[in-house]
Structures are given as C-alpha cells and as structure tokens.
Design a protein that fits this description.
This protein has 364 residues and is of the alpha/beta class. The protein has helices spanning 8-18, 33-42, 56-68, 79-95, 121-125, 143-160, 170-174, 213-233, 254-268, 286-292, 309-317, 336-350, 357-363, and strands at residues 3-7, 23-26, 49-52, 73-77, 99-105, 136-138, 163-169, 176-180, 237-240, 247-250, 273-278, 280-282, 298-303, 323-327. Helix 3 packs parallel to helix 4.
Length: 364
C-alpha cells in the first residue's frame, strides 16, 4: 500500500468509495466543505452519485431514499447543519436505514465561528432527534483514522442497520497527513430488505411508523437490543500507558494527540500518567474506565467544549475516583504546556503521603 498525503476530510471520501459507498448528498459548510468537494470529484469516477442538495434537511432525506433502495450512502456537515439533519436521522434510526454521517465540528452554539470545537458531542452522542434510539459514534484523531473509521462506519451501519456518525473536530478534518488505503475495494451488494422496484422487493416495508402501541414497543425493544449488542461487541478505546497509571487523562480527537505528548513528557519526569482515548463515543468505553479506577487516583478529562464528555466519564467512574476537568472553547485548543501544568498539580495533590520509618515501626 502506498501512502498519500491528504487532508482528513479527503481521506473520508476515498475510504467511503473503497467501502462501497456510491451516493453522497450534502451541503457545504466549513470546516467540512472539502468532503463535498472531494465527493464531487471522486464519486462519479467510481460510478456513483454526487448531488449538492439545496439544504441539509434535503440531504438527509435523500439519504433516506438512497438507503431504502439498498445503496451505501453518506453525507457530511458541521454543527449547524447536523442540527438541521436531526429529524431525518431520527427517521432513519426508526426505519432501520444504514448511512454514514461525517460531522466535522466547529464552534457554537448557533453559527459560532469557523474554529474547531468538540461541542457537538451531546448533539450526536445523546441523539439529537426525537424518540428512543442511539447512534454509533466514532471519533478519529488522525487522517489515517478518518479513513479507517469511515470504512468501519459503513460496516457497522450495515451490521446494525442504522445511522453511524463520524465525529471529528476541525483540526483533524483540515490537517494533512500520510494515509494508507487497502488495495481491495468492497463491491456494493443490495441487501434483501431494500426496496428496489422489483417483484422480489415488493413486500418490503420501510417505515418508522407503528400505530399499534404494542407493535411500537416491540420495535423499540428491538432497536435497544441492537445497541446493547453493539455495546458488548463494538466498544473501542486506545489505552496509552493507562494500565499502571495513577493519573489517567481522557480525551478524544485532536485532544487525544495532545494528551499522548503530555503522557510521554510526564512519564519522563517520573509521573505515573496514562491516557484512555475513547474511539467509540457511543457506545462509550464505560467498562474500561471503571476498571482503570481500581488503580488510578484521579482522572483528568480534557475537552474543547463546556464539558460534555466529562459527564459520561463521571458516570463511568461512578464516584470511585475524583474526575477533574480542563477545557478550552471558542476555537481554542488546550496547549501541551497548559495540560502538563495541571498534570503536575494533580501529581502533587494526589501523591500518597509516606510515613516516616520510625512512625511506621511504632504503628507495628
């Protein structure tokens, strides 16, 4: 495999095509616009369809139609556009229609600015649309992972028949890095549940409407059972020197890369620091965090938001250890020195006090 230098946004599109995606419907918005630009260039070359919709509302409903026909399809946007798509995402979750949605997040609320943030976490992880459903959410921290997790997103969307969101901050989307792609491409297959206009598919019904209360409850329990299975089988996180850490850093996306550098410098100073980087934000790596709490003395969550993932970390730790929080917002990113200074403070605060030798003997 040869490496290609490209932005993370472009890597998404190339990986999607190799994963069998043959339709892209979207509306450009910074910092995600390169995804639509690359899709306009490459999708027709692969025999697929690119269409710039008149709005994000139109784009997500085009995905509903394409997915209903069994086409692997995707869209991309940023926070304000994802807000407009939430009704359609809920419809697709209710109708059990697979698709991939890339959210390259920017500062908010409202229009905010063009700076990178991680403030779309609650919107996509907690399910911004109506009803009882979950979406699987993947969080890449490099251009290579933008490619790798896009391919995984299409697999998971088909496996669990629902929308999968790729949540990346603007830094990861805009950053250029070498990316490797697999040699073999996935050949798109039409699933047996799709509506294709043939006699064989005439009996297929795709809808999120179930008027009978009991039928609706059975349907919702089926959706929940799928997500419970995904929680058991698909939860992913990167453990970076966390197994023996007394101070565990937690961050995703570009923040995860900063925390890796902090971990290495802190280790060089003799500080017992490690990192747990969630790769699936939904399902969240609750079990891994709770297990680390058996040894760790304190957790430090670092986010580019007002504190959205930190609540999930606190729930995962379940009061076993303190969870501290450091953040930047508005397009600002926590600096390496800023995080390291807090780590040093936590090391002094949470270092166990050793009794003098004579005092230990007296207690014996």
């Amino acid at each position: 495999m040869r490496k290609q230098l490209m932005k993370g946004n472009e890597a998404i599109v190339k990986s999607a095509i190799l994963a069998g995606c043959r339709a892209f419907y979207g509306y450009p918005i910074t910092p995600a616009s390169e995804i639509a630009e690359a899709a306009a260039l490459y999708m027709p070359q692969a025999g697929g369809t690119f269409l710039q919709a008149e709005s994000e509302v139109a784009a997500i409903n085009m995905l509903y139609g394409a997915s209903s026909a069994g086409v692997r399809c995707m869209t991309a946007s940023s926070g304000p556009g994802i807000s407009l798509m939430q009704e359609g995402i809920s419809y697709m979750a209710g109708a059990e229609l697979p698709c991939v949605i890339a959210d390259i997040s920017r500062s908010g609320p409202g229009l905010g600015n063009l700076g990178s943030e991680q403030s779309d976490y609650n919107q996509v992880v907690k399910g911004g649309g109506n009803g009882s459903y979950h979406t699987i959410v993947l969080a890449p921290h490099s251009a290579q992972e933008m490619a790798d997790l896009t391919a995984l997103a299409f697999e998971l969307a088909d496996r669990y028949r629902g929308p999968v969101v790729l949540l990346a901050d603007g830094f990861v989307g805009q950053m250029m890095e070498p990316v490797e792609f697999p040699q073999a491409a996935v050949q798109p297959q039409v699933p047996d549940w799709a509506v294709t206009g043939t006699a064989e598919s005439r009996g297929n019904m795709i809808t999120s409407l179930h008027m009978d209360f009991n039928d609706m409850e059975v349907h919702l329990r089926g959706l929940e059972a799928k997500f419970k299975r995904a929680r058991q089988l698909e939860t992913r996180a990167e453990d970076w020197y966390a197994e023996d850490a007394e101070i565990v850093l937690v961050g995703y996306g570009i923040v995860g890369r900063i925390l890796k550098a902090v971990t290495m410098e802190a280790r060089a100073e003799g500080l017992p620091v490690g990192l747990l980087r969630p790769i699936t934000l939904s399902p969240f790596p609750t079990t891994q965090l709770y297990r680390l709490a058996e040894r760790a003395r304190v957790f430090l969550v670092v986010e580019m938001s007002n504190g959205q993932m930190v609540e999930d970390v606190r729930l995962a730790v379940n009061g076993a250890r303190p969870v501290e929080f450091l953040n930047r917002m508005g397009g600002n990113v926590p600096s390496h020195d800023e995080v390291l200074a807090v780590v040093r403070q936590l090391a002094r605060k949470h270092t166990p006090v050793t009794q003098p030798e004579e005092e230990q003997v007296a207690h014996v």
